Structures are given as C-alpha cells and as structure tokens.
Amino acid sequence: QVSSKEGESQCKEKHAVLLSPVGKLEISGCETGLHEIKLPKMSMLPSGAESSAACEVCEGAEEMTEPLKQCTAWLRAYFCEPARMASLPVPAFHHPLLRRDSFTRQVLWTLLRDVKFGEAVSYKQLAVLAGNSRAARAVGGAMRSNPIPIIIPCHRVICSSGQSGNYGGGNLMKEWLLSHEKLQKEKLA
C-alpha cells in the first residue's frame, strides 16, 4: 500500500496544514524527515492584525511524525516568536533532492547554514558561498526547486540590483517574509 519511487526507502508520508500569517502552509513528511512545504499564492499582503495571528495546525495534527512536529514548532516560532528559533532544532529533511549530491543541494545547505534570519544575499553571493562564483543562474534554479521554503530560506536570496526577484509563493510573499524578518530582527536587537 505504500508506494516507493525507485531507489528510495519506503516512506509513509503524513500531511499537516499550518494556518500561518501568510496563509495555509501544506507540510508533508515521514518518520525520517520533512519532504515538502507548499506555499499558498498570496494575492495581497496580510494586514498587521493577521500577521500577528497565531500559527495553528488546522489539519493532520493527530498523526504528525516527529519531523512534522519539529517543522510546525519551527514555523510557529518563525512567524510568532523569532527569539525562540535559535533554541529549536531544524527538522530533518527527507526529500530526494536534499539527499542526492548535487550543486542544488550544496546551494540549499549553504543557504540554510550561512544566511541568517533578517539577512539577504544575492544570487551571485550565494554562488560564491556555495563554491562556484560563476553559477548565479544555477543558484536561481536551485531556489526554484527548493522543496522546503521558509526553513531553507530561498526568500532571502535577492537580485544584485536589490530587486526581490522571483519567488515560489509569489513576490508579495517574498517581500512580506523579508520585511517580517527585518522588523523582528530590529525588535530582537
């Protein structure tokens, strides 16, 4: 009953939906780790009142795996209590893209490790950090294929011109996430 892609261990995938200030985030993962966070498309920015709305799991709470629990705790802290993020573990990842050795994986891990909350980096700077200064375009491709947005913060990667650049959740969401981090970082400072 559990289908498996070739060469992959059999996963019993579980799903949860987290109601967040930017809409419903669909999260999936197995016992081993997180598979994906699906972002909603935002047509308008949340107002101040909505953006301080609590983050609640609205579907799937009863059968969450440990990585899903860690993911929702991390996201809740990200949106509602950024000061707590430092003390929370980043959930394990179990997406094939993050297990295969590739430049994309290298870029995503570099981004997760080196570009902190409230910071931004250009595609070119991230290419340099990931070890290939001429790979800015490939960095863009890696951002597009990021299966775990927000936790792997592809929204923090912007154009050298200072323009925000494209984003899977739409440019409004990217701008909202960047300004949320900037405001929260100022509060924490």
Automatic annotation (TrEMBL):
Q: Where in the cell is it found?
A: Nucleus
Annotated catalysed reactions: a 4-O-methyl-thymidine in DNA + L-cysteinyl-[protein] = a thymidine in DNA + S-methyl-L-cysteinyl-[protein]; a 6-O-methyl-2'-deoxyguanosine in DNA + L-cysteinyl-[protein] = S-methyl-L-cysteinyl-[protein] + a 2'-deoxyguanosine in DNA
One matching Pfam family: DNA_binding_1
Q: What class of enzyme is it?
A: transferase
What are the residue boundaries of the Methylated-DNA-[protein]-cysteine S-methyltransferase DNA binding domain, all occurrences included? Answer: 105-182
* Protein name, as recorded: Methylated-DNA--protein-cysteine methyltransferase
Task: Give UniProt keywords alphabetically.
Answer: DNA damage, DNA repair, DNA-binding, Metal-binding, Methyltransferase, Nucleus, Phosphoprotein, Transferase, Zinc
